[in-house]
């Protein structure tokens, strides 16, 4: 499963990550940046370290799990 991770900096200078499942691909960097700007300007999310104040990064993460048969 793929996730889009949006990383922000909060007022305490800590990194806060929000993950969205199954992003539309290919991911459009301009749209991601605009969405992140909107999240900050609307104060849509908060964190234990205060409001989000800056964008840090965005990335698509894919996790592959393969079961190992034992016993």
From TrEMBL:
* One Pfam match: DUF2922
Give the highest taxon in the source lineage: Bacteria
Annotated InterPro entries:
DUF2922
Query: What's this protein's name?
Result: DUF2922 domain-containing protein
Species this protein is from:
Ornithinibacillus salinisoli
